[in-house]
């Protein structure tokens, strides 16, 4: 699904230097400006006062950048200055080397590492159930019914095997061939790293009728191995429980685990391991809260500033179709207005494995063949699983690769082998059936894969991942293994199902013909790649800065909003790209129609997006912050949705790599004071972003100053705002609210786009009927 979040990295800088401030913990980062600077377009600003600013640098990297210096470092440099980090101290010193970052992604990676160990037990045939529990104290536990980590003395370390695994790097049963055939919890990152980066960790092993328990604090053993009889049940238990609390001195951005983020990954693991049951329980919801009855009886006074806090509390929104989590118990009111809400629980089990995964991904689409093609073969101890389905109303390919249950975002040799084998086989079959003539060139891989949704999952005994985050599989032998497995098994399938082959070939030929029709339109876009001419597409008002990392572009609707944005911006690093009305829905359009559209041409050329289907090159982007800034109404929401659809379908890596943002524009201006009657005579202006915020702010004002005068202005659009207002509410990096758009669940994102933006009416109507109660008719243009 799409995740729109406002967490980022906080910088304070002038125009020629920077100071690291740490990570932003709220949506709108109000960092103190380093100096008052003057906007070059207005000198001193329109009221004669210097306008302060600070650049909010919200990049994909979550660790502090290294700032170069030319000043010599004082002091001696000898053997005493060579630092040797023992045991887990190196992990605490450089956590980013082991978990990728110390932001939200790294935080959740801790849970994944513990879960990976349990999944490895399942791959070895010794585990059927995993329970992940989010506790009210902020800790998380992972319990499985596997064999339990061994507790006998390790021959090399002299410690128990349990303590060795938890305190020594590169220690585990997965480096040799005795404990596990394949494993995902490898590559130097494991439960010992989780131990090092936690305030405390408790490990409990149920094995041989005994209970073994140890406790650690920041990687150090504080409670040695304790053994006691396991009297927990009539049937002897087995398995491992790891419970830990992340260290806030390491994870300075946040230490609260997100339920939906964990649910997405655990659901994915359940797909990849058919029959494995994974439960996710959130006990944090059991914190007592005031009941609706009690809240209505005595509504608390809301300070005017609380409206901002309330807005910032909602900094994370899911754009997806996830059903509400199941509950394990009913809410209980104790009779005094205090309610204990039920814990959330989700159970993930997919007995159809990756074939069910693909079927769910293509749900709501028009399948070319009714059944998902599922292939499985083991070659040279490498287990290959492939599931495929082509859809006639899908114009891109979605191919997800996994190696030992780890999503290889950057591909690898398994996907290279899959694509090469599939292209060669389809062309060979096409010539055998006479669909492709001898005089015709082979169909390219893009045409063969158009409309394809596929999962390629391999289990490799000794995986070689490139990069600490395991983003690409590097084993060269896997390419030939996948190539061989696909060519033999898929050829056999086509022999048994000749109509499926015919339908797939027709789909590929249609893709080729559409591409030929679009080629001339692509050439038009290519010829317009020089942006320094006077005929800039979309009336782009460029910025002075030529460094994409320091530049940002606002995509706004119409000339009115574009005019205010151009006048209110800081032209040194902010560009403005107005678009005329609503762009075409790329979900329903072929490539020819897309490239002929004027507004789409403007977006492609101005932003440097390249061409659809080409490998994404971040170096071609002209701005590293692409900010969608639309009106705060239903039309603005529709334009925003069309733009998000365009970015994800045309060049999905732009979204996945964190270059796309959404600006939060105010809906109301509340002005108080300035003329007797209470309020102290001091004029105060407050910008509010929803009807609820306005109601709370007005109620708070009346409770404090019943006679205070106030006026409310509703902004019908960004074009109504003065340039100064647009700057201070939506564009000033020191005061604005930005949401970064991420994709955490590719399945949900694809399903939502297909359902809401595709050709089929019935799924969209069903969605509207299911969510009708959440709609506000006043916000709709009827």
UniProtKB/TrEMBL annotation:
Q: Could you give one GO CC term from the UniProt record?
A: chromosome
The EC number of this protein is 5.6.2.2
Q: Name one GO molecular function term.
A: DNA negative supercoiling activity
For the Toprim domain, which residue ranges apply? Answer: 551-666
Q: What GO biological process terms are annotated to this protein in UniProt?
A: DNA topological change
Matching PROSITE patterns: TOPOISOMERASE_II, TOPRIM
Catalysed conversion reaction: ATP-dependent breakage, passage and rejoining of double-stranded DNA
**Gene3D superfamilies in the record:** 3.30.230.10, 3.40.50.670, Histidine kinase-like ATPase, C-terminal domain
Provide the cofactor list for this protein.
Ca(2+); Mg(2+); Mn(2+)
Q: Does the keyword Zinc apply?
A: no
SMART domains xrefs: HATPase_c (SM00387), TOP2c (SM00433)
Q: What's its job?
A: A type II topoisomerase that negatively supercoils closed circular double-stranded DNA in an ATP-dependent manner.
What PANTHER family would the database entry show?
DNA GYRASE SUBUNIT B, MITOCHONDRIAL, DNA GYRASE/TOPOISOMERASE SUBUNIT B
State the NCBIfam families in the record: gyrB, PRK05644.1
Q: Which family does it belong to?
A: Belongs to the type II topoisomerase GyrB family.
Q: How does it assemble?
A: Made up of two chains. The A chain is responsible for DNA breakage and rejoining; the B chain catalyzes ATP hydrolysis.
Question: Per its record, how is this protein called by name?
Answer: DNA gyrase subunit B
To which species is this protein native?
Cyanidium caldarium
Q: What is the lineage of its organism?
A: Eukaryota, Rhodophyta, Bangiophyceae, Cyanidiales, Cyanidiaceae
């Amino acid at each position: 699904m799409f995740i729109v979040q406002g967490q980022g990295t906080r910088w304070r800088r002038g125009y020629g230097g920077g100071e690291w401030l740490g990570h932003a913990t709220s949506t709108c980062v109000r960092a103190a400006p380093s100096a008052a600077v003057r906007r070059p377009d207005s000198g001193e600003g329109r009221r004669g006062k210097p306008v302060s600013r600070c650049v909010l640098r919200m990049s994909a990297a979550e660790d502090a950048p290294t700032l170069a210096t030319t000043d010599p470092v004082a002091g001696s440099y000898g053997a005493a200055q060579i630092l040797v980090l023992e045991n887990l101290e190196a992990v605490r010193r450089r956590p980013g080397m082991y978990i990728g970052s110390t932001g939200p992604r790294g935080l959740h990676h801790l849970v994944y590492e513990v879960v990976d160990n349990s999944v490895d037990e399942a791959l070895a045939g010794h585990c059927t159930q995993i329970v992940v529990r989010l506790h009210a104290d902020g800790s998380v536990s992972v319990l499985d019914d596997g064999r339990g980590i061994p507790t006998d003395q390790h021959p090399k370390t002299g410690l128990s095997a349990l303590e060795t695994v938890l305190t020594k790097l590169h220690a585990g049963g997965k480096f040799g061939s005795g404990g596990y055939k394949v494993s995902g919890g490898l590559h130097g990152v494991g439960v010992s790293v989780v131990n090092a980066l936690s305030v405390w960790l408790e490990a409990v092993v149920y094995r041989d009728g005994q209970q073994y328990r140890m406790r650690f604090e920041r990687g150090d053993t504080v409670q040695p191995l304790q053994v006691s009889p396991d009297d927990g049940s009539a049937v002897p238990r087995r398995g491992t429980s790891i419970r830990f609390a992340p260290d806030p001195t390491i994870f300075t951005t946040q230490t609260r685990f997100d339920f939906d983020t964990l649910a997405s990954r655990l659901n994915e693991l359940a797909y990849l391991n058919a029959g494995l049951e994974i439960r996710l329980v959130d006990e944090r919801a059991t914190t007592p809260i005031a009941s609706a009855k009690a809240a209505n009886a005595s509504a608390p006074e809301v300070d005017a500033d609380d409206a901002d806090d309330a807005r910032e509390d909602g900094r994370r929104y899911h754009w997806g179709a996830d059903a509400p989590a199941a509950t394990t118990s009913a809410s209980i009111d104790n009779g005094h207005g205090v309610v204990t809400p039920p814990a959330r629980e989700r159970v993930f089990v997919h007995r159809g494995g990756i074939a069910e995964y693909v079927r769910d991904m293509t749900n709501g689409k028009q399948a070319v063949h009714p059944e998902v093609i599922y292939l499985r073969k083991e070659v040279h101890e490498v287990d290959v699983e492939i599931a495929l389905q082509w859809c006639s109303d899908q114009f891109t390919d979605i191919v997800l690769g996994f190696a030992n249950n780890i999503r290889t975002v950057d591909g690898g040799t398994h996907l290279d082998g899959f694509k090469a084998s599939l292209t060669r086989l389809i062309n060979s079959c096409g010539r055998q059936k006479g669909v492709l003539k001898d005089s015709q060139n082979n169909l390219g891989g893009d045409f063969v894969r158009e409309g394809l949704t596929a999962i390629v999952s391999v289990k490799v005994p000794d995986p070689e991942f490139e990069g600490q985050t395991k983003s690409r599989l590097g084993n060269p032998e896997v390419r030939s293994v996948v190539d061989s497995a696909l060519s033999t098994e898929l050829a056999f399938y086509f022999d048994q199902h000749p109509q499926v082959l015919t339908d797939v070939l027709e789909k590929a030929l249609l893709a080729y013909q559409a591409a030929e029709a679009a080629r001339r339109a692509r050439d038009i876009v290519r010829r317009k790649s020089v942006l320094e001419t006077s005929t800039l597409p979309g009336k782009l008002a460029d910025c002075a800065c030529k460094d994409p990392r320091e530049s940002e572009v606002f995509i706004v609707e119409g000339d009115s909003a574009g005019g205010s944005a151009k006048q209110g911006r800081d032209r040194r690093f902010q560009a403005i790209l107005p678009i005329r009305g609503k762009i075409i829905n790329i979900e329903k359009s072929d490539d020819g129609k897309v490239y002929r559209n004027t507004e789409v041409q403007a977006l492609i050329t101005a932003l440097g997006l390249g061409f659809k289907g080409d490998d994404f090159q971040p170096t071609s982007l002209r701005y590293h912050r692409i900010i969608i800034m639309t009106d705060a109404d239903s039309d603005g929401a529709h334009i925003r949705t069309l733009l998000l659809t365009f970015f994800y379908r045309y060049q999905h890596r732009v979204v996945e790599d964190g270059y796309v943002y959404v600006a939060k524009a105010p809906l109301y201006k509340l002005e108080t004071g300035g003329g007797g009657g209470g309020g102290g005579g001091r004029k105060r202006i407050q910008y509010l972003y929803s009807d609820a915020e306005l109601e709370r702010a007005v109620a708070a004002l009346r409770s404090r100053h019943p006679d205070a005068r106030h006026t409310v202005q509703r902004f019908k659009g960004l074009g109504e705002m003065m340039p100064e207002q647009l700057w201070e509410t939506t564009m000033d990096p020191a005061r604005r609210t930005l949401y970064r758009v991420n994709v955490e669940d590719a399945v949900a994102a694809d399903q939502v786009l297909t359902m809401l933006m595709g050709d089929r009416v019935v799924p969209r109507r069903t969605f509207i009927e299911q969510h009708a109660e959440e709609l506000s008719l006043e916000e709709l243009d009827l």
